[in-house]
Each structure stands twice: as C-alpha cells, then as structure tokens.
Amino acid sequence: MAQARVKARRPSFLGGERFAVFAESLLTGVWIAVASLGVVTYPAAFAAGARHLRRRTGHEGGGWGEFAADFRTALRGGWAVGLAGWAVAGVVWVDVLAARAGLPGGPLVGAVGVFALIGAVVALLRAAAVWAPGDSWRALLADAGRRTALDPAGSFLIVCGLGVVALSALFVAPLAVPVLGAVAAAAVAVEERYRHR
C-alpha cells in the first residue's frame, strides 16, 4: 500500500501570522501617536500600545477599546513620568548647548548627557513594555533601569528601533507615526527575550 506524500506548506509572507503582527504593530503606532498628542502622555501611550501587542501575540482579544482603557489607567502615574522625561530632555539640551558654546569640559558633559538620555528612553520603553494595570511606574522604571544595564544587547535593539523611527521621520515624516508601534513591538520582544534567558 503506497502512502501518499504530503508536502508541508510553508506560510506565505503575506498570509502568515508574522505579517499580521507587523501590521498590528503599525496600527498600534498610529494609536500611540494619537495618544501622545498630550505631550506628557507618551509613557502611558507606549504602555497601552505594548499591552495591546502582548494581547495580540498571546491570541487574546483586544482593540481600540482595550487600548483606550489601558491608556487611561496608565496615565494616572504616567503623566508624571512624561513630565520628568521632558525635564531630562531639557537638561540634556542645555548640556548640548554648553558643549557647542565651547565651555571647558562641554563636549564630555554633552556626550554623557546624550548617552544618559538614550539610556533613560530605553529604560522607559522597557518599563512600558511590561506595564500592567496596578503597576507602579517608579518600580517599573527601577527594574527597567537594571535590565537596561544588564541586557546591553536587548537595549541596543531598542536603540536601533529608535534609530529607525528617526530615519523614517527624516526621509518621510509620516512614516515615523506607524513605526512607533514597531518600537513598542521591539520593546515587548526584548522583554520577552530577557524573561526567557
């Protein structure tokens, strides 16, 4: 009795789950951009976006309604984090201006300030990637700061994602909006990778 050989089908690029996650992350980027219009709301927007992407990759439901509910919950403590982030960015901007003005030690202080800002942004994205309702932003940021230092490869991947957003904005500004979701997806993937190490 001859057995028929059945050839396993490979999922197509456009029909596979990977493309669906990519498309969902781009849509999430638009939601993050809209939620970040409040200037100090960007931590809550990224937290809600990351939670949405975790739900989608976990094959749970989720849509705009859940994103909006998560955003409102994350905003309770997240607005203070957003305000502090802008204050840190302002201090770094002053450092860079001092470096350009030729003050003694200015280039070193400017470089340290820029690297500290990049580290703070990565820690914020890592904290947002694991946020859940009821979590304290202070505790999340402290843990994320440690993970940022202990997992340089993962932190570098997030920096690369931020570079993609910057380049997208440089070449075609509207592309930076959906790519924000890809950065949130990268942060979620980095945190998942770190958790399973």
Task: Please give a handful of descriptors for the protein shown.
single chain, 197 residues, mainly alpha
Tell me about this structure.
- Helix 1 (17-35) packs across helix 7 and helix 2 crosses helix 3.
- The chain is built from seven helices and no strands.
- 34% of the residues are buried.
- The chain is mainly alpha-helical.
Distance between the termini: 48 Å
Q: Evaluate the radius of gyration.
A: 19 Å
Order of helices and strands: HHHHHHH
Largest sheet: none
Ranges where pLDDT stays below 50 over 5 or more residues in a row are none
Cα shape: globular
Strand percent estimate: under 5%
Average pLDDT works out at 87
Total helices: the number is 7
Please specify the SSE layout and strand pairing:
Blueprint: H1 17-35, H2 42-57, H3 64-100, H4 106-130, H5 137-150, H6 152-171, H7 176-195
Short description:
By secondary structure, the protein is an all-alpha fold. The chain has helices at residues 17-35, 42-57, 64-100, 106-130, 137-150, 152-171, 176-195.
